[in-house]
Amino acid sequence: MALEKVKVAETALKITIISVTKLKPYRITTATLSLKNMMGAVYPRRSMHLHKKIADLASILRPSVAVIDGVIAGEGHEASKSPVEMNLVKAGTDPVAVDAAGTVVMGVDPMEVKQLRYAEEKGWEHAR
């Protein structure tokens, strides 16, 4: 386990989590999707930008529902001003499967997204 200690909002441990994120690429983690979105519940966020830590965090704060908003998606990288109209929304109760489907839509093999590969290694079989 790469994540040894993390500060998580107590409320996040007690509630049903619905992760809603935009469909967009991200330079450090290849994609910003539901697993990476869980970083919003930790402090400090900058310490979480490692693929194994994102997968570990999702073990603790696993979204009950993952929603990817690709109505207007991002292209290029997170700071790029290149929106793409896709008219797409992906949702499901398996955040790894939803994220994997999101990467496929972006033309990326889910196994190239390290946090998805690590999630699969943890036994979450829906990354492929």
Write the layout of secondary structure elements.
Elements: E1 7-8, H1 10-14, E2 18-22, E3 24-26, E4 30-32, H2 34-37, E5 42-43, H3 51-60, E6 65-73, E7 84-92, H4 95-105, H5 114-121
Parallel strand pairs: 2-6
Antiparallel strand pairs: 1-5, 3-4, 6-7
Helix pairs in contact: 3-5
Provide a quick synopsis of the model:
The protein is α+β, with helices and mostly antiparallel strands.
Account of the 3D structure:
This protein is an alpha+beta fold and 128 residues long. The chain has one domain (16-127). Helix content is 30%, strand content 26%. It has five helices and seven strands; from the N terminus they run βαβββαβαββαα. The strands form three sheets. A three-stranded mixed sheet has the order 2-6-7. Strands 1-5 form a two-stranded antiparallel ribbon. A two-stranded antiparallel sheet has the order 3-4. Helix 3 (51-60) packs across helix 5.
List key phrases describing it.
single chain, 128 residues, alpha+beta, 3-stranded mixed sheet, two-stranded antiparallel sheet, 5 helices, 7 strands, 30% helix
